[in-house]
Task: structure prediction
Amino acid sequence: MRNCIIAQSGGPTVAINASLAGLLDANANRSYFGRCYGALNGITGILDDRLLDLSRIMSKTPDFTDRLIHTPAMYLGSCRYKLPDPDSEEGERICKRIFLLFQKYDIDSFFYIGGNDSMDTVLKLSRFAEKNRSSVKILGIPKTIDNDLAHTDHTPGFGSAAKYIATSLREIACDAYIYAVKSVTIVEIMGRDAGWLTAASVLARTDSSPAPQLIYLPEVPFDLAACVRDTKSLLERENNIIIAVSEGIRDAQGNYLSANQAVRDKFGHAQLSGTGKALETVMRDQLHVKTRSIELNVLQRAAAHCASETDLTESHDQGAYALTASMEGKSGQMMTIHRIEGTSYQTRIASSPIDQIANKVRSVPLAWINDAGNDVRQEMIDYLAPLISGQPSLFYKNGLPDYLDLSHLRG
Result:
């Protein structure tokens, strides 16, 4: 029996630990790997030889995976490390270090749980393994609240984030309605290139509340003048207007509304901030009404108290399926979810080649956005609704959620 290493990378989600638990539970049932190691802080934990013996932790803590499923963020920690091209001198040197560690711990499979940038790492390591005829299998398990990975109906973590966003928008509306004054509230939601998260705000609407009345996604050009006109028109009929905007909205020339466009991360992504604040300033100056902006930011990434049971279950199942993929000899693949056509919501889990997924962005279909570019259509509501269903039972202590001890991440 050989061993495996599991790592997590990128931004946290409510459900990423459920995928880790699914893989560990599947191995406990099928006894495929002798030991399951967890690399601390993503691929950097492998480069620095910082591993946890997860098999030992499970043997000492019988309810470990049950607690893990309901613990948000990342039990193994994360990183934002861009692996150099393995065909470059530096990339080849680093990949050799990684595979030497695989040899040291007798590794059969490496599982990387993460989003698009993590799948870039899976792609590079799998190509290096193939080029050097290594038997180590490299497999990706998706997670990202952005829901922007290709070849999958949706990604683990998105359903819970969507539920949190819809809940928050509904509560913001309740707060706004209590005052008999004209007001505009702008809610900025994560989404640099894909507007899935912002689109989820549509689920906040009820028969008695149309908020958010306006929804703007980065898939279509943002017309600031039209936004002001639409808001002014709505204020003539009702007191309180709530606007949901993606942080990545940009005009027809590609200019972000964000106050900060110049800073970029290691992967070349623009570090956006201040979109809601910028729109708040314009609305206040032109409409002369009470105006405020709210940035959900990291709150939507790890709100386990508002998790979707469907999201946690599917995330766990994808982790379990990754073990099956390894047992079948697959490598250079990412686990995927496919919606089965029918009247009731059903899915199946499979895998797709990583070179068809890494470094690609799955955007909101334009047909799901209205012609004015300020709302989404019924197709979006039908797509989103099943993903937020179900409420998990959390572990509580002294009135607060009791999550697993993360002291091993505190340095």
Q: What stands out?
A: The chain has a mean pLDDT of 94.
